[in-house]
Design goal:
alpha+beta, Beta-Lactamase, 4 domains, five-stranded mixed sheet, 10 helices, 57% helix, rod-shaped
Length: 464
């Protein structure tokens, strides 16, 4: 915004220019006719008109004509003209001065308008860059409001995405795009007519278009997120159907076959015991699958809220190992009973660890699975390492996806593909992280990274 020039300063410049040119003409009268020197007054007229406008330029032209008449047109010292030729010369000069003043003022106004349009174009570019290129909408709108106030010359400005009304301090200008109100521009009530016209005719239309584009982009991003969620849901449903067709059918088939065999008249007591064991084992397998599906459903829906309480990692590891039902020789556990207590959901953490242990035992080829824990700063690190074939680097992240299974050497995957996904979900629900590390043919290591609250007690110092 250009600072208005002082009117008093313009009067001083006009008076000084008339006096200076009048003094300069005196020595020139001996060289050229006095009437011809009147053109010099046009310099002052153009200067004043260009900087202070038409009114002061015309006043300068009148003062110049009066000074020219009084000091240089015979008879001098009086506002009279003896020679009619000088009347014509003075009239032509005065007309030229007024025309020159008018043209200079018009050029000045056009220059100011061009400068104003340039600032408005820069403002429009800044609005698009800030609003469309900035992720934080509120921060971007505040920056744009500051640029609008600076460009138009306002004390302050604010942009709201909601519908706001004018009050005693601020005037509300609606932002409307394609018949839809997308926000409100709030400016001080004490704005000039020129500022309001500039805002309503040139700034607000561009601002409305940019804000509408930003809102449309946000809507599109929300639609993309929703579409991704729907696509993931469809993928989960498809994977679930595939799993149901195989993993649930297998134990059901085994149970049904065993149940039919119980009624055989040729079956002895030992055979019945074996069939009973098959039914019990397959029922347990079926129960775990159903529990995994329920756990995954809660995690996907965000309803698996942990019930936090103090617990010992030693007890959690022991409970997970006991529930696994694996021979003691398959597990090499070394977890001190003096480690700080965790404030987590012990049931969820136990379930996560049991799933990881089950996966490690299945892929360890009969070798013991190592379980180690240590406290490091504000974290407790638990590592579960097996001596299996390892996990390919490309699959280290995918193994935590629901229903994803690492392929064995014969091309088949073991398990339901839910255990690790559920383990990761439960660990993260309790504020921790679960990651996998592996080198080819050197087994896999699953690392539980769990937070330790400030001042976490140890089992020895914890209250009963």
């Amino acid at each position: 915004m250009q600072t208005p020039r002082s009117h008093a300063l313009g009067l001083m410049v006009a008076a000084l220019s008339v006096a200076t040119i009048t003094a300069v003409i005196f020595p020139l009268r001996h060289v050229v006719p006095a009437v011809s020197t009147g053109v010099l007054y046009l310099l002052g007229v153009l200067l004043v008109s260009s900087y202070w406008g038409l009114r002061l330029g015309v006043a300068t032209a009148i003062a110049s004509a009066a000074a020219f008449n009084f000091f240089h047109i015979p008879p001098t010292g009086r506002f009279t003209i003896a020679d009619p030729e000088n009347w014509v010369a003075l009239g032509v000069y005065f007309a030229a001065a007024v025309v020159a003043s008018t043209l200079a003022d018009a050029a000045r106004v056009r220059a100011l308008e061009a400068e104003e349009r340039s600032r408005e174009a820069d403002l429009a570019a800044d609005m698009a860059r800030l609003i469309l290129g900035h992720r934080e909408t509120a921060e971007a709108l505040a920056m744009v409001a500051g640029r609008i106030a600076e460009t138009v010359g306002l004390d302050s400005a604010a942009i709201e995405l909601s519908w706001r009304d004018s009050d005693e301090r601020r005037s509300a200008i609606p932002l409307v795009e394609s018949g839809r109100r997308v926000g409100t521009l709030l400016v001080p009530r004490a704005v000039t007519e020129h500022q309001r016209s500039q805002l309503e005719e040139r700034v607000v239309p561009a601002l409305s278009a940019v804000v509408a584009a930003a809102l449309h982009r946000t809507e599109l991003e929300d639609e993309v997120v929703e579409a991704r969620a729907l696509r993931r849901s469809d993928e989960l449903k498809t994977a679930l159907l595939r799993m149901v067709s195989h993993d649930l059918r297998s134990p059901l088939t085994a149970i049904r076959t065993a149940a039919l065999g119980v009624g055989s008249p040729t079956l002895d007591q030992r055979g019945r015991e074996e069939i009973a064991a098959v039914i019990a084992g397959e029922s347990e397998r079926l129960s775990r699958l159903v529990e995994n599906l329920l756990d995954l459903s809660r995690l996907e829906a965000g309803t698996a809220e942990p019930t936090r309480d103090w617990c010992s990692i030693d007890e959690v590891v022991g409970a997970a190992a006991t529930g696994l039902g694996a021979p003691a020789s398959n597990l090499d556990i070394s977890v001190g009973d003096d480690l700080p207590l965790l404030r987590v959901d012990a049931g969820q953490l136990e379930r996560a660890l049991a799933n990881v242990l089950e996966n490690a035992v299945r892929h360890s080829d009969g070798a013991p699975v190592s379980v180690r824990a240590r406290a490091t700063g504000s974290r407790l690190i638990l590592r579960v390492a097996d001596r299996g074939p390892g996990i390919p680097k490309a699959e280290l992240q995918r193994i935590f996806d629901p229903f994803y299974r690492v392929r064995d050497g014969d091309g088949a995957g073991g398990g339901s593909g839910l255990g690790l996904a559920i383990a990761k979900g439960f660990v993260e629900a309790n504020g921790g992280r679960l990651r996998a590390e592996s080198l080819p043919d050197q087994g896999a290591v699953f690392v539980f990274d769990l937070p330790l609250p400030d001042g976490a007690p140890t089992p020895a110092t914890a209250p009963a």
